[in-house]
C-alpha cells in the first residue's frame, strides 16, 4: 500500500471514531414553533426576541415561510420570556416558558391585529414531566423543580431515575438500574456531553464512582436529566438500554 493510501485510510478511521463518539451528547435545547394571525394565516417576517432570565441573555430569530421559526443551542430550563413584533400587529409577550433538553415544539402563537387589541397571552401548555414524540422516541425529562420535589435518601442518581417509566432497580446491586428490560450495563450516562460510564465494568451501577457508593456528579449541580429509550433521532446512540443525559446548572446574575 502506498504512503498516500495509508494516510487516506488513517483519516477515514479517525473521522469514523470522532463521529461515533459524538452521539448522545445533547447538552442544550432546540426550539421550533409557528406564528399565525387571528384568521389562522401564517405570518412571515415576525421578529421574535427570546430572553433567558437567569443570566439576562437574549436571542433573536425571524419567522420564515409558513410562519415557522427555530432556534438551537439554547440553555435548558428557564424561565424564558418571548416578545413577538411585526408591522401591522400588536406586540405579543409570552412569559414563563421552560425548555427541556433536545427539541421543544411550541403550540402555534396567534399574533393579534393592531385594529383588534387583545390582552397579553400567557402560554403555560409546556409539560415538564414525561414527553413522548416522534422526534425523540420515548423520552422522559426530569427538570430542576421535579428533582427538588423527589426524595433522594441515598443521594444516588438511581433515587431520581426510579421515577422514569420502564425502570427496574436490580436487587442486590447497589445503584444498578435497568430500562426496558435491558441490563444496567447497556446504559450510557453523560454529564454535559462527557461520558461517565464505568468502562472497566467494575461497579454495579455502571457509572464512575460506583464502587465507592457515590454519584458520578453532585446531584445539587444538576439542572435537568433526560432519559431516552428507543430513540428515532439519529444524533442519539451508543446504548441499547437507555441514554441518560444530565446537564449542570449554568448559574445566573443573582446570588443564591
Describe this structure in words.
- By secondary structure, the chain is mainly beta.
- 12% of the residues lie in helices and 34% in strands.
- It is built from three helices and 16 strands.
- Strands 9-10-15-16-13-14 form a six-stranded mixed beta sheet. Strands 1, 4, 7 and 8 form a four-stranded mixed beta sheet that branches.
- A hairpin with a 2-residue loop joins β13 and β14 (194-195).
Q: In a few lines, what is going on in this structure?
A:
By secondary structure, the chain is mainly beta. The chain has 3 helices and 16 strands. A hairpin with a 7-residue loop joins strand 11 and strand 12.
Give the key terms.
256 residues, 16 strands, 6-stranded mixed β-sheet, elongated, 12% helix, mainly beta, 4-stranded mixed β-sheet, 3 helices
Please identify the structural class as seen in this structure: mainly beta
The overall strand count is: 16
- Determine the N-to-C terminus distance: 63 Å
Order of helices and strands: HEEEEEEEEEEHHEEEEEE
Instruction: Extract low-pLDDT stretches.
Output: 17-23, 125-136
What is the rounded Rg? 22 Å
Based on Cα principal axes, name the global outline: elongated
Estimated helix fraction: 10-25%
Q: Helix count?
A: 3
The biggest beta sheet reads: 6 strands, mixed
Q: How confident is the prediction overall: mean pLDDT? A: 76
What is the beta-strand fraction? Answer: 25-35%
Strand adjacency order, main sheet: 9-10-15-16-13-14
